[in-house]
Amino acid sequence: MDGEPDLWIGGSWRHASDGGTRDIINPAHGGVAAVVDEATPDDASAAVAAARAAFDDGAWRATPVTERAALLERVADLLQRDKESLARLETTDTGKTLAESRIDIDDVTSVFRYYAKLVGAEADRVVDVGDAAVISRVVREPIGVCVLIAPWNYPLLQMSWKVAPALAAGCTMVAKPSEVTPLSTIAFAHLLEEAGVPPGVVNLVQGSGATLGAALTDDPDVDFISFTGGLATGRTIAKTAATHVTKVALELGGKNPHIVFADIGGPGDRDSGWDAAVDHVLTGVFLHSGQVCSAGTRLIVEESIADDFVAAVAARAEKITMGDGMDAASETGPLVSEQHRDKVESYVRLGISEGARLVTGGARPDDPAMADGYFYLPTIFDHCDRSMRIVTEETFGPILTVERFTTEAEAIALGNDTEYGLAAGVRTSDTARGERVVRALRHGTVWLNDFGYYTAAAEWGGFGKSGNGRELGPTGLAEYQEIKHIWHNTAPGAAGWFKG
Ligand code: TXE
């Protein structure tokens, strides 16, 4: 960063092989926040080769699990020591508020602590084959060299969901953050080095997806690719990986329904759940300006309360304090880049041309203090339907679409009518109905009378085109492991099948 080498390959820090760099932009004001090295395909090959050598050498994967767990705990301690500086980097890079960035660093820490404990508690499985002479057991081994590709909305958080279980399992890896937001991951790599990660076990390269990312995913020495990002890129990576039969895990976002039943009660009646429902719908879609894979972008609300409910959400949306994430008063920040705001604006134009009714937003804020940043107002479209692309496609911005239903079956059908399936929310005061609906929804995470929460101990991932595989929880560790069955005959004898 800013003249220091940023690529960590085989345990040493170096500049890009062709000397190339990239300007990192602060989205709150459009200025250059830092200049970082831009890795080339040659750097990608060097990083994979370093990870391959560190894996094949065998020392890391043979490191006792207690030592690997201790290393993860050291990383967690260092993350907490540097929490404030890491949070500031995250806000500088992504635009999210400092309060959110601090929560992110706490969450990253808890992922490391969770996998330190989980891997330490893992046990082999003994299988009874009905022969006292045979010891048959199923063991887990590291899958090998992993390529870890993260997006820009939760740069360090998403990377930690990959690095922590990969390290715990005994894998070696090449990490590639988004070229838009590499700063926190570079600082994190320095912490990994300080914590004692052996040379070549973790390698860091940053640069363009189209060149560097493509080179990493097309390298035949890679055993596993874990990717979080957009659907189109996920498809490209899966096709490339198929040529090498490389295992792939994909988290590709969502178009997440938030279903609200009329039985939540009436406006102003706190105990009945109305205010809480309005608050969660608002937070679910406008937190981090909607740049959240699990954002509740589709409000599916019962017709009898729809007018009042949408008006209540719109009134709150208009009061959201937007500004530079470094300002403690800001409740939400800008979009991550000018290019991304262009995309969001094109979806708003599309929504209007598709006939949706604009309730609020649909413009950049007019405050001159935000004129140079990539801000966009919270936007709500009412009277939407499934023929509209703003309802079916991931806009990844502060856009809420509203659909209406009259029966429970219709609500479920609408909630499932998406090619994605990452997350969904349901709000009702009827417990039995709530349980029926959450079981009927085809999404990887479903919140009942809550929205957006997750824990390192529970799996995260999607149905349908939201991807495949799971992160977090025990499954998030299993992704980085091969399963081996060992059959040991302690009283060896002939097979005795062939008589001659
Ligand atoms: O993502 P990309 P983009 C969605 C969201 C957004 C859209 C596009 O809808 O508007 O995706 O965003 C790397 N081989 N999500 O273009 O391209 C890239 O460098 C290998 C949802 O920014 O998917 C970055 O590190 N890697 C999502 C990472 O992929 C490649 C979060 C993600 O970038 C590559 C972000 C290639 N050919 C966007 N091309 C979520 N699931 O939360 C790019 N990359």
Folded structure, characterized:
This protein has 500 residues and is α/β, with parallel strands linked by helices. Helix content is 39%, strand content 19%. Helix 9 links the parallel strand 10 (224-228) and strand 11. The mean pLDDT is 97. It binds ligand TXE. Ligand TXE binds at residues 149-153, 176, 178-179, 209-210, 213-214, 217, 228-230, 233, 236-237, 251-253, 293, 343, 394, 396. Keywords: NAD, Oxidoreductase. Residues 13-486 form the Aldehyde dehydrogenase domain. The active site is at residue 251.
Beta strands, count: 20
Helix content: 25-40%
Task: Estimate what percentage of residues fall within beta strands.
Answer: 15-25%
Shape: globular
In this structure, how is the largest beta sheet organized?
7 strands, mixed
**Order of adjacent strands in the largest pleated sheet:** 14-15-16-13-12-17-18
Protein name: Aldehyde dehydrogenase family protein
Keywords: NAD, Oxidoreductase
Domain Aldehyde dehydrogenase: 13-486
Pathway: Amine and polyamine biosynthesis; betaine biosynthesis via choline pathway; betaine from betaine aldehyde: step 1/1
Summarize this, please?
39% of the residues lie in helices and 19% in strands.
Question: How are the SSEs ordered, and which strands pair?
Answer:
Layout lengths: L6 E3 L2 E3 L6 E5 L6 E6 L3 H16 L2 H4 L2 H17 L1 H12 L3 H24 L3 E3 L6 E9 L2 E5 L5 H15 L2 E5 L6 H13 L6 E3 L4 H9 L6 E5 L2 H14 L2 E5 L5 E4 L13 H13 L11 E5 H15 L20 H16 L3 E4 L18 E4 L6 H4 L6 E7 L2 H9 L6 E5 L3 H10 L4 E4 L18 E2 L4 H6 L2 E9 L11
Parallel strand pairs: 7-8, 7-10, 8-9, 10-11, 12-13, 12-17, 13-16, 15-16, 17-18
Antiparallel strand pairs: 1-2, 3-4, 5-6, 6-20, 11-19, 14-15
Helix pairs in contact: 1-8, 3-5, 3-6, 3-7, 4-5, 4-7, 5-6, 10-11
This protein binds ligand TXE.
The site of ligand TXE has 26 residues, from α8 and α9.
